[in-house]
Amino acid sequence: MSCGEPHETDCGEVLDHLYEFLDSEMPDLDRDKFKQHFQECSPCLEKYGLEEAVKKLVKRCCGHDDVPTDLRAKVLGRLDLIRSGQAVPDHDVTAAAPAAPQESQESQGLS
């Protein structure tokens, strides 16, 4: 997408990094360039507004769900494998993952 007008920051670059901007995952200098671009470019501002609205809607509708116990176990199993330096397979690793001591999980707030 491009509005056809020249900008210091290209529309393509802005749209390629839009989620980094929305999530505040870019340096302040780049954020300032993007803010300037949105002031100059209504198509990019419209896209920004749409993506921001979708992000807020998803957070409101999905942000309060509890994590299923089996998913939590799978994630913790993969983290254990990564920490131990083992290769992480693409399939379910809950059976292969070493069980962490109960005390260790409690001290990390994981139980």
Order of helices and strands: HHHHHH
> What is the CA-based Rg, rounded?
21 Å
Number of helices: 6
Q: Helical content, roughly?
A: 55-70%
Biggest sheet record: none
Gap between N and C termini, in Å? Answer: 47 Å
The whole-number mean of residue pLDDT values reads: 80
What is the count of β-strands?
A: 0
- Overall shape: it is elongated
Low-confidence stretches: 93-107
Structural class by helix and strand composition:
mainly alpha
The amount of beta strand, in percent, is under 5%
3D structure, described in words:
The chain has 111 residues and is mainly α. It has helices spanning 11-16, 18-22, 28-40, 42-62, 69-84, 102-107. The termini are far apart.
Describe the secondary structure blueprint for this structure:
Layout: H1 11-16, H2 18-22, H3 28-40, H4 42-62, H5 69-84, H6 102-107
